[in-house]
Structure formats: structure tokens, C-alpha cells
Amino acid sequence: MRSDGSALNLRRWWRSAGFAWAGIRHAYRSQANFRIEVWAGVLALVVAALLRAPLAPVALACALVLGLELVNTALEAVVDLASPELHPLAKVAKDAAAGAVLIASAGALVVGLVVLLPPLWAWVGGWG
């Protein structure tokens, strides 16, 4: 289907959003790490809401991890398509993409600790 050239075409946007959701559904169904990261993010957001901690940094950290996991999934699929046999450069590409997810996950953990530990500590301290 050819584009009509308008970035503001609602039908075009809706169609693109459908493709994006298909990619997210595929990653959720096929990637165990993505499922773990989705539910860890949901848990972090629920805890932040219950503790009345700032949601924005937690949500952004979760979005970064999930977005990079989707990019990692896409890159792995393209590398597997382009290089079905083992190749050192294919390994480099896959490892680097996985490394990006690892770094984002470590950063998200730090954000979670910085944002959630103080109100959690205050809440637990209020028991005594």
C-alpha cells in the first residue's frame, strides 16, 4: 500500500500502530525476557503508585528497557535471516544488542532503588 504522503492521516497512523502492536505481541509471546521485563515494570509502577513515589522516572526506565528489548528482538530476527549460519559478526551484533538491554536494565534498577527505596523505607519505618 502506498502512502498518501500525509503524516497526519489517521488511517495510516492506525495501520502503523497495528503493525507496532503485532510486534509487541510477538515479542511477548516468543521472548521470555520481554515477559519478565513487562511484569517487573508493572510491579515497579504499582509499587510506585502505592508508595506515592514519582511515576515518571519509573515509567521512563521501564519504557527504555522494553523498547530496547524490542529492538534486540528485531535485530536478532534480521541477523538470523541474513546469516542463518554462525558468523562472528552476527554474534557481535546480537551480543551488542543484548548488552544495550543489560545496561538499560541496570539503569532501571538504579532508578527504581533511588525512587522507591526512600518511601518504602519510610513506610516500613512507620510500622515500628
What does this structure look like?
It contains 4 helices and no strands. With 128 residues, it is mainly alpha-helical. The longest helix has 38 residues, at 88-125. The chain is globular and about 60 Å long.
The Cα radius of gyration reads 19 Å
Number of helices: 4
CATH architecture: Orthogonal Bundle
CATH class: Mainly Alpha
Average of the residue pLDDT scores = 94
**Total number of beta strands:** 0
Report strand %: under 5%
Derived from helix and strand composition plus strand pairing, the structural class reads: mainly alpha
Helix-residue proportion: over 70%
Name the helix and strand elements from N-terminus to C-terminus, one letter apiece.
HHHH
The largest pleated sheet is described as: none
GO molecular function: ATP binding; kinase activity; metal ion binding
Transmembrane segments: 34-52, 100-124
Pfam family, one: DAGK_prokar
Binding site for ATP: 12, 76, 85-87, 94-95
